Amino acid sequence: MRSFLFRFAVPRAVARSAEIVGVLVLMSEPNEQEKAAARSATWQGLRSLAAALKTSGSAGQGNGEGGNRNHPVAALVLVTVSMALLVGIAAVGRSAALSGMDPMQILFFRNFFCVVWMLPLFAWRGMSLVKTSQFRLYGMRVGLSFVSMMCFFQALALLPIGDVTAISFLSPLFGTLFAILLLGEHVGSRRWVALGVGFLGAMIILRPGGMGFGFGQMAALTSAMTVGVIGPLVKQLTSSDDADRIVFITNVLMTVISIIPALFVWIWPSPELLVELVLMGLFAVLGHMTLVRGYAVADASLTMTFKFSRLPFSVLVGYLAFGELIDGWTWVGAIIIFAAAAYVTHRESALARARRLAEPDVDVDPQSLTPLRLKD
C-alpha cells in the first residue's frame, strides 16, 4: 500500500497541484490592458504628487483655498524631510554648545545664515518677498519664536537631542491648554483625558522628583509651550502670505533682534564650526519651508502623525554624532505624549471642519490646533 502511494498517488497529486497553481498564476497575471491601466495610474499619481508639492507653498493654502489639501503622500514626503532637516539644526546647535558657544550666539547664527541662504530668492522676487499686511501677527510670532529658540538651544546645551525632541512633542497639548485657559474654549471630556494622558507622559520623561530634573528640562518645556502658541499663528499667516515670505520675514526680524544680546557673549567660531553653522542656516530654511508646505497639503490631524519621525532621527543622529542614547522610559513617555497630541490634533481638526460646515460664512482654519485667531 505504501509503495502504491509513493509510486502513483503522490506523484499524481503533486502534478495535479502544479497544474492548478499554473492555472491560477496565468489567471492572476495582468493582461496588456491592465498593465497599461496600472502604468497610467502610476503616472497620474506621480503627476498629482508633483502638483501638490509645487503648489504647497502658495498663499491661501493654510485656509484650504486654491490648493490641494488632500494629498497624504505629499504631506508624508514634505514632513518627513522637514523632520530630518530640523534634527540637523539640533545637531549643529548641540555641537556648537559643546564647543563653548553661548546659545544666544547660536541663535543669531541660525537666523543670520537663514537670511543669507534666502538672499538669492530675495534677488529673484524683490520687495514682494517682504510685502505683507500682517505686521501684528509677525510681531507676535517673532517674539514667541525668540523665546522658543533661545530655550531650545539652551536645552540642547544641557540635554541629549533625543530628550529635547521627546519633550517638544508636548507643544500641541500646550496649545490646546492655552486655548482653554486664555480663550475660554469649551473642551469635552475626551480631550481633557487626552491632555491628562499627554502630561502623564511628560512626567514619565521628566521624572520631576528625581535628580535628573533641572534647568535643561525647564528650558525644553518652555520651548514646547511657546511653540504651542506659534503653530496657530503660522497657520493664520499662510492665509495671506506664502511659505517663503513667512520664513524670510521671520528670520530677518529674528536676526535684528538676536544680534544685540549675541554681541555680549561673542566668540569667533573655528573654521570647522563655522561650516556647521552655515549648514544650520540651510537646514532651517529648507526644514521650515517643507514643514509649512506639509501643513498646506493635508489636515493637521494627518500631518501630525508624520512628525513622530523626528524622534528616531534625533536618536540616530545623537548616537552617531555624540554617542548619546535615551533610556527606555523616555521612549515610553514620548510615545504616550505623541499619541495624546495626535488625538487632540485629530479631534480639534474634526471640530473645526464641523464648525465650517455649520457656519460656511465663518473663516475657520481646519489646520488650527487651537481656536486662536488674531486679526489686524
Order of helices and strands: HHHHHHHHHHHHHH
Q: Proportion of β residues?
A: under 5%
Helix coverage percent = over 70%
Tally of DSSP β-strands: 0
The DSSP helix count reads 14
Distance between the termini: 94 Å
Mean pLDDT: 77
User: Which residues form runs of ≥5 with pLDDT under 50?
Assistant: 23-28, 61-67, 361-376
**Outline type:** globular
> How would a crystallographer describe the biggest sheet?
none
The number of domains is 1
Structural class: mainly alpha
Measured on Cα atoms, how large is the radius of gyration? 26 Å
SSE layout:
Elements: H1 2-28, H2 32-55, H3 72-98, H4 103-125, H5 135-156, H6 161-168, H7 171-183, H8 189-206, H9 215-237, H10 243-263, H11 271-296, H12 300-306, H13 310-322, H14 328-358
Helix pairs in contact: 3-11, 3-13, 4-5, 4-10, 4-11, 5-9, 5-10, 6-13, 7-9, 7-14, 8-14, 12-14
Describe the structure.
The protein is mainly α and 376 residues long. The protein has one domain. It contains 14 helices and no strands. It has helices spanning 2-28, 32-55, 72-98, 103-125, 135-156, 161-168, 171-183, 189-206, 215-237, 243-263, 271-296, 300-306, 310-322, 328-358. Helix 4 runs antiparallel to helix 10 and helix 5 (135-156) packs across helix 10 (243-263). The longest helix has 31 residues, at 328-358. The protein starts with a helix and ends in an 18-residue tail after the last helix.
